[in-house]
Amino acid sequence: AIDDDLAISQFIGIVGESSGFDVEVCTDHRTFQKCVEANDPAVIVMDVVMPDMDGIELLKWLTSVGSQASVILISGYGDNYLDAAQTIGTVSGVDIAATLKKPISSEELEASLLNMLSIESMKLKLPGTGENAAPFVQDTLPDGFSVGDEQMDADHLQLFNMINAYQT
Q1: For 40, phi and psi rounded to 5 degrees?
Q2: Where are the alpha helices (DSSP H) in the chain?
Q3: Cys-Cys crosslink for 62: which of 57, 67, 95, 120, Cβ 3.0 to 4.6 Å?
């Protein structure tokens, strides 16, 4: 997690640990970059507006180092910042898993993190023939199945993947 506000970083760390993640808390970009390089995280919670190097610059950096982490963007500056960061991150090839507006409740952060944990656990390879068994995970819902709510769509995607796994 990276947020220039120590209290928010610590809050994210507490919620992350209680959600089952090993957490590194950072308040500046240099420490964050070292943590990413050393730990190759699966999920990153990142503030968009920070001094020195903001979230958008860090999203571009994540792409440049080949990070495969899913990112939860947070901001207290409103939807425009989150929308811009989400668009730039997505175009850059970063998996933007969720966007959350500050103040963030522990419940909404925990729900987003648990979704990420569920998705990570679904990325299992099913038994196949030969050495190159392909992962059996849908990345998006089939056409017409989105309800327009990020949380519910993520849950439905998980259900589709579970059903697909049992059918094989």
Answers
A1: 45, 65
A2: 6-18, 29-39, 55-64, 79-92, 106-122, 150-167
A3: 67
